[in-house]
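Final report, section 2: Outcomes. Of the targets proposed, Epithelial splicing regulatory protein 2 is the one most frequently requested by collaborating groups, and we therefore present its record in full.
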Amino acid sequence: SLVVLFGATAGAYGAKLGSDERELILLVWQVVDLHSKKVGTLHKSLVKADNLDLSDQCREVSALTPEGLSKAEPLDRVLQQFSQLVSSDLKVLGRSSYTLCSDGQLLIRQVLHPETSKKNFPLSDCFYSFYDLRKEFHTCYPSSAAVKDQTIKTMAEYLGLGTDEAEEDFGVWQVKTMVAIIFSMLSEGCNHVFTEPESVKYKYETGPCLLWLLFFPLCSSKSETVDSETVIRARGLPWQSSDQDIARFFKGLNIAKGGVALCLNSQGRRNGEALVRFVNSEQRDLALERHKHHMGSRYIEVYKATGEEFLKIAGGTSNEVAQFLSKENQVIIRMRGLPFTATQEDVLGFLGPECPVTGGKEGLLFVKYPDGRPTGDAFVLFSCEEYAQNALKKHKEILGKRYIELFRSTAAEVQQVLNRYMSTPLIPTLPTPIIPVIPPPYTIATGSIRDCVRLRGLPYTAGIDDILEFMGDATGDIKPHGVHMVLNQQGRPSGDAFIQMKSADKAFMVAQKCHKKMMKDRYVEVFQCSGEEMNFVLMGGTLNRSGLSPPPCKLPCLSPPAYAAFQTAAVIPAEAALYQPQALLPTTRTPQASAAAPPTVTYYPAQAAQLYMNYTAYYPSPPVSPTTVGYIAAPPGAVAAAATATHTPLLPQPGALVRMQGLPYNTGMKEILSFFQGYQYAPDDYNGLIQLSDQARSVLQAPKEWVCL
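The predicted structure is given below as tokens.
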């Protein structure tokens, strides 16, 4: 038996049914016995929507009114009545089973499934399988119009059925005409058989969408399988949304297995976007109709995407990941913030017996850097939703001395996180300079004269142009190369900046004028300070209401005495190449500008042993700040001495430097030299270039090759 079903919403009608998220307000149905060609009673039921504001098209086509709908039953009660009345009609016809038959797919896929999902009540099994009358009609009559162009009226006209739409109530005429069309298809001339119903997936299937994606992400012959006509990009997702949440948003549409790929930003966190792959282009086209539908209080944008984009997110190359994801129908949880010393036993103990991990240790995947160091992330498999929910209850509980964050995850997220960390270089390198610039000579500020200002509370997105705009007319009073952005240990803006003014009076005026002035959506505090205070902060110290806290390199007994800074040559980093310092600030002309500049050689002052290099030097500051990357240019007197030297300069060629990260703050020169014991030049090999005191010479005894400073 078939149950012919027709419905309408409070909004769009026809080809746009369900595209505006409006609620169902009408259901009409009738049972048809395909063997005896008998029909049951025709039923029409109004549905009370939460929002009774009907669109003009709905009022015109259906002739329904808000007053009439206000007396109707809500959708869940109407669906209960539907099941009861269908069962009763089947008994009268001597039948027990049935399949729905609707005019197209919109009513079931775009209206009933999304609405019941949002209202949190289940649909009966009969709504997960149905016949699309338009497709069945085109199969029976191949010469008729294309499926997408079919309507109840055009099908009736093709068969010559003389029904008058104006004679019947809205919905009643549609169902009667659909029944007449079905009987025509069952006639002796056609003998159509309904054999292949449409199906709606009960739930989203997790796991890798295709196993070969794990091993051949860039293989062109394989990537052709991911049809670009089946992929969409969803944007504006809540950051905490999981693949199941996204599948629920597209409820009623069939997503391919493992077809939800959450996109991550450069920090490995979700960026509010996802790529979704559907089983065919028809489902993808229906998904595009959900553009700006809502997930909670947020509307979601839906756009077309390509198979190549999907592969970049969902593909991978790790055998370990393939093994981890090979288990079917598992719930994946991501753990973040694990102690670096955490073991598999520690994680299993943290989760406890109430949330057993699938396969024990085999259900854990630790994320590591290429050199094997842990990142603090791990993925865990659970066999059911109950265990996963128990695990999520442990969000921000303590393991060791750290709290652990737990989130739902996806197979695609596992791939992205592993790919991102495994592709991270062991030693991040500076970007290659593309425009070498030798600016006019300048010196880093020193002394106690308060000719500098400190900007605190800058937006993290603020750049040099924002600061110059913030300073206004005072920009002309900034010294050349006098803007210093303070970066944190990760090389990101800390919200602080120092600016060297031409005089203490200018600094005082700027502090008075700009203090608590707005930059973008934040107010910025401006304080007058000295060059010495500025240098302490740039070298890693702190400056607050309690006074100055010296940087680690200034602590007594750990480092040799400091020395006055020498002039350095600047190199504009690649990302700052568009900003020319000369274009931003006035430069000082010198009479010797036309003279050939002496060569710059590596030079260490007499006090030796300590470079004046701030702790953020490896992360280039913006282009109008003095560069602190590189060596100190030699004073003129040292150039001649170095030129006449017969030995090889200390570090003249590329590759002679190594970078050390993660040093304890109390590390001194002795500890570093001890760490590199056996890899040093003998002191005699570089005496001509560095003037060593007896104390320093005693420290640098013995060894064979010097590769670290």
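The mean pLDDT is 76.
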